[in-house]
Amino acid sequence: MDSQKEIRALLVILGTFIGIGLLFWGASSLLSGLSGSGGEVVQEGVFEGPSDAPSRESSESSEGDQEEA
User: Fold this and answer.
1) Domain region containing 17
2) Which of 9, 28, 32, 53 could share a disulfide with 39, CB 3.0–4.6 Å?
């Protein structure tokens, strides 16, 4: 009888963790769906961040050259 109680307890614990995980996953997918392509834009911005940094520095240096001239 004890082994059955332990198995049930493990199943309940696993079920609660899976349920909580599904709730968070569903909420995040709903939020990303409501914002449309906002999540994709954020991801693209994260990937484009390093490539944007040198271009920003070069644009700042070019602006500085224009101000000097």
Assistant:
1) 1-34
2) 32
